[in-house]
Amino acid sequence: MHPESTSELKQLSDEEIRTWPLEAKDRWWLANVYKGDMPQLTLRSALTGMMLGGVLSLTNLYVGARTGWTLGVGITSVILAFSIFKLASRLRLTKTDFSLLENNCMQSIATSAGYMTMPLVSSLAAYMMITGHVVPMWVSMGWMILLSILGVLFAFPLKRRFINDEQLPFPEGRAAGVVMHGLHGGSSADGLFKGKLIAITAGLGGLVSFAKSHSLLERLSLGFLAIPDYLDGWLYRWVWTPAVLGTPLKDITVRFESDFVMMAAGGLMGIRVGVSLLIGACLNYCVLVPWMIQRGDIAGALDPAGGVITYSFKGITAWSLWTGVAMMTTSALYAFFSKPKVVMASFRGLFRRRQIDRADPMLKIELPMKVFVFGIPAIGALVVLWGKFFFDLPVILGVIAIPLVFAFSLIAINATGLTSVTPSSALGKLTQLTYGVLAPGNMTANVVTGSITGEVASNASNLLMDIKPGYMLGAKPRQQALGHVLGIFAGAIVAVPVFYLIFLRGDPNGLVTDANPFPSAVVWKAVAEVMANGLHQLQPSAQIGAVVGALAGIGLEMIRGLSKGRFPLSAVGIGLAFVLPFTTSFVMFFGAFLFWVAARASKRETGWVHRTLVANYETTCAGLVAGGSIAGILVQVIDVLLVRS
Measured between alpha carbons, how far is 278 from 589 in angstroms, rounded to an integer? Predict the structure, then answer.
């Protein structure tokens, strides 16, 4: 182990960050933090990062199809790689330990792979739902790779400003840096405990996912071991069937699911979002949906087998999504524009004069400026041409999107650097609103241009989130940028074929199901439809719901701002519940509630409950999500292959 890795993390004081010129900060970093002789982008770190990134990209694909959200995989990959190489070292399978910067480079590759899957569950899925046509797999793969690389090219020129000069915190990236420093610089016991914990919880999550696959267990003559999908079957069989206004609640997704993955995802989201999801779900499914069914605004279909009226999740959300979409959109936009200082600060630095020494101390380790000068126009042109030939995007609309990308990347990076929350959804909706004016009635252009700005800005922000721990630990920026690009290819190669095999299955109209509601794609499609057709095309009750949802979104964000963030509800969480099945919202609330109770009930810091569910709750949740989602995808792959055979 290099001696530098055992020292305390060195950083400038707030006053030094505020008063020192950039050149002085760079020279201080080179003298005190930079570890130029430590291995970083080695063959083993690249292969490990691409392997873990490819596998962990499936967790975001699975969770994104269920919730519309993505989860950071950086800390998960850090702990997994550390544990793998510690074990290999003990078994004498490797001659040297995994270095601090190898681990950092590996997490950058893995995180890049995890985040780049987002278009599959949002804009790209929405495009296929609107057109009804399957985009060829290689076209989707190329589109996602181009958008991600364009994000890298836009981000790196801003790295010197946001990370080297202003040194924004990037909280999630800083957390990964602190974890890596602790694993490599302190006692290995804590790292090994985290490794064991993530392995055990991943195994448990995977076991539950396999146990829920009734068809697979029946084929193996192990059907008696199957875990029921729902835990309330006994209630309806032996007690009674709850109903509201004559509609049985179990017919409109009000059930209790045995889903450890979503339970763990709720633990990561926290009690505020969990309670908001529960409130939104109860309001929608226990009040509004039965009322709309009684009014005839939500139509059912006659089940010929049972002779009863049934209600599909797709039919329910055709009405309810407008309230949820309006609430999420206005709350995101209000939260974004209610902080004008963040927006203005993003642009102010562009016009600030700096005295830069011609002998730039970082010249030999930063990416050369010519990469961006030639790369942005070249990749930008490829994006525009790809959009024209494969997505019917007029060239002029594609060209207009590129400068918007730069402006939105500035804003997104600044917001992510301060809060770890990337406003990609709000920025995508802003683009959709903009193109609703520039190209009225063109739904495909609306979605494709929103994809360009939202996804590129998101990738740029996530890149700097990855670069932050590298800067803290003394990594070479060039190698970390190259690692990020490797992660882009790893994510595309693994996630895109899996999406086509088990989710798309050749039919965009069958993409949204009770099990995989694709809420983010539904929202993208809904905004495009409103921009093209107007609200007057909706049922009157849905129009009222949209107006009420929009006002509620603004009102809830205003209250949150006035309370300085202490208001316990999330407008996005409440709105999201309108486009998720009740089962998913409830199980995520239950997960958040369990970890919240554990944090308050646990008194002994040395007890296993505190170590597992409080001190290392992120590790526990990440293991359950990773194991359960990967096993869930594997089970679906096996089912598809068995059906085809």
Answer: 6
